[in-house]
Amino acid sequence: MREAAFVNKNKEKWQLFEDALYNKKVISPDKLSDLYVELTDDLSYAKTFYPNGNTVIYLNSIASAAHQKIYKTKKESKNRFVSFFKTEFPLMFYSYQKQLLIAFLVFAFFSICGAFSAATDIDFVRLILGDGYVNMTLENIENDDPMAVYKKANEVDMFIGITVNNIKVAMYAFVLGILFSVGTLYIMMQNGIMLGSFLYFFYDKGLFWESSRTIWIHGTIEISVIVIAGCAGLVLGNGLLFPKTYSRLESFKRSMKDGLKIMVSTIPFFIVAGFLEGFVTRHTEMPDWLAILIIAISLTLIIFYYVIYPIKVYKNQQIHE
User: Shortest CA distance to 65 belongs to which of 5, 14, 10?
Assistant: First the structure.
C-alpha cells in the first residue's frame, strides 16, 4: 500500500485519538484503549514500510504523548471506587450482554433438565445432592421443619462459609473459561442441574411454595451472580476463540481484564447473598409478603444493574460524544 493510501485509510481514527488526547473529547475507556492499540500497530506498520516518511514522525509524536499521559505518576482519584461501579463497569459491561444471555440460557436449560431428570428417575436427586443431604431433609420434613438446614449453623459462621463458597464457585466459572469457554459452560450445566433437581425434590414432597419462598430469599442474588460469573468466563474464553483484529495474546489479556472487572462487580452482591442466607433465610416464620418483597427487590436490583443500567450509561455516553 502506498503511503498516501495508508494515511487516507486511517486518518479519521488518528484524528479521533488526537481529539481525545489534546482536546479532551469524551470517549469510552474501551474505545480509547482500542484506538491506542491500533495507533501503535499503525506506527509499527509505518516504520516497516515507510521508514523515512512523515507518517512515522506524526504517529510517533502522538504515541509518545499518549504514553506520557498514561504512565506519568499521578494520584488515584478518591472517587475511583465509586466511578468504577457507577460508570466504568456498566459502560464496559454493555458490550457483553450477549455473553450474559448465553450464560443465563445455558443455566436455565440445564435447570429444566435437572428437574425433568429428577421427575423421571427417583434416584437422580440422591445422585446429584448426595444421600446425606436428602436423608437430612427428609428427616426435617418429618419434623415439620423442611427448611431447618438454614437454622443449624451460627449466623456469622454461616454467612462467612456461604460467602466464601459462593465466591469459589464463581471463580471456577470464570477461570475455567480459559478452556475456550467449555469449562464455564460445564459449571453452568453442573449448577443448573443441581438447582433443577433441588427444586423438583421439594415439589415432589408438596413443598414447592414453602421451599421457594425460603430459598429464593438468598438464592435470587446468589444464583444470578453465579450466572454473571459464567458471563465473565465466556468473555475470557471468547477472547481466546475470537481474537478479531488483535493477536491471540493481546485478545486474551483484554478479555482477562474485562472478565476480572465483571468478577469485581459481583463482590458486593456475594456479600449481600451471604448475609441474607446467614441471617435472614433462617427465619422461615416470616410472613409471605416480606419474603416476596425481599425476592422482588433482589431481582430488580440484579436486572437493573446488569441489564438496564449499562444500556442507560452507554446511551448517555453516546449523546456526549
Answer: 14
C-alpha distances out from residue 40 to 44, 69, 245, Å? 6, 15, 13
Q: How far is CA 54 from the centre of its chain?
A: 45
Q: What is the pLDDT of residues 87-97, one digit of tens each?
A: 999 999 999 99
Sorted by sequence, the CB contacts under 8 Å of residue 255 that are 6+ apart come out as 235, 236, 237, 238, 239, 240
Residue 86 grid cell:
457507577
Helix residue ranges, H only, the chain: 3-22, 29-49, 54-71, 80-83, 89-93, 97-120, 124-129, 131-142, 155-175, 182-204, 208-241, 248-275, 288-303, 309-320
Please tell me the pTM assigned to this model.
Answer: 0.77
**Could you count the other beta carbons within 10 Å of the beta carbon of residue 78?**
8
Give the separation between CA 180 and CA 241, rounded to whole angstroms.
Answer: 6
Cβ atoms within 10 Å, residue 304? 12
Predicted confidence (pLDDT) per residue in 218-266, tens digit: 999 999 999 999 999 999 999 999 987 778 888 899 899 999 999 999 9
The CA distance from 232 to 239, in Å, is: 11
**Side chain identity, residue 247:** S
Q: List the grid coordinates of 63.
A: 504515541
Question: Which residue do the cell numbers 435437572 mark?
Answer: 114
Q: Three-class SS of residue 79?
A: coil
Task: Answer yes or no: are the C-beta atoms of 115 and 211 closer than 8 Å.
Answer: no
Phi-psi region of 206 (alpha: psi -120 to 50; beta: other; left: phi over 0): left
- Closest C-alpha to 268, from 232, 301, 316: 301
